[in-house]
């Protein structure tokens, strides 16, 4: 296999489980050094240890824990990547939360958690990454993990869908702000994917059958489905792609079934 990311250093927030983990493994297989951000708890440490066990032999993989919604955490993540791997070429803002809740009874804590992680976390971390890339003077790639929810409404997602629209909008505006530095900014919009956050919803056999029937490719997504597109956006294969939104949803968002 051709190593598309050899010599590159990448950071992935929320990188020890689900989509972030799949992207981390994809980057490692293509020769990148990877720093993952995760929560500061025992479960996250277990996930990181299992990620190390699954990574290709000789992989350059490190982790740093912290609350991604804090400005200081974004700065610390970038610093950790520089200290460990010497540079920062790719940054994936993946960390996010998603809970299905009734709009009319939504509590303040749930709304705040979505704004904190999905919006503030993406903003502060990508700002820190951009500053480092500018300092290095050789461009880079920033990728925001959005969702088809950026374009579609959901009765129990009134607090969630705007945050994913914000991630998409951030990548578009960052593409305008950072293009003069050779930094490309793009968004991946996934459909329903088998993650921890979607597990409860997909446990409903009737709902799963409906989604599978509605999706042209006939199944819901797996986290690994995002790895290839993330490698593409990180590599020189997409060297003239910025401000783009790449749908990775099996055709769900364009199907009327």
Automatic annotation (TrEMBL):
<dbReference type="Pfam" id="PF13561">
    <property type="entry name" value="adh_short_C2"/>
</dbReference>
<dbReference type="GO" id="GO:0048038">
    <property type="term" value="F:quinone binding"/>
</dbReference>
<keyword id="KW-0521">NADP</keyword>
<dbReference type="InterPro" id="IPR036291">
    <property type="entry name" value="NAD(P)-bd_dom_sf"/>
</dbReference>
<keyword id="KW-0560">Oxidoreductase</keyword>
<protein>
    <recommendedName>
        <fullName>L-rhamnose-1-dehydrogenase</fullName>
    </recommendedName>
</protein>
<keyword id="KW-0684">Rhamnose metabolism</keyword>
<dbReference type="GO" id="GO:0016616">
    <property type="term" value="F:oxidoreductase activity, acting on the CH-OH group of donors, NAD or NADP as acceptor"/>
</dbReference>
<comment type="similarity">
    <text>Belongs to the short-chain dehydrogenases/reductases (SDR) family.</text>
</comment>
<dbReference type="GO" id="GO:0019301">
    <property type="term" value="P:rhamnose catabolic process"/>
</dbReference>
<dbReference type="GO" id="GO:0006633">
    <property type="term" value="P:fatty acid biosynthetic process"/>
</dbReference>
<dbReference type="InterPro" id="IPR002347">
    <property type="entry name" value="SDR_fam"/>
</dbReference>
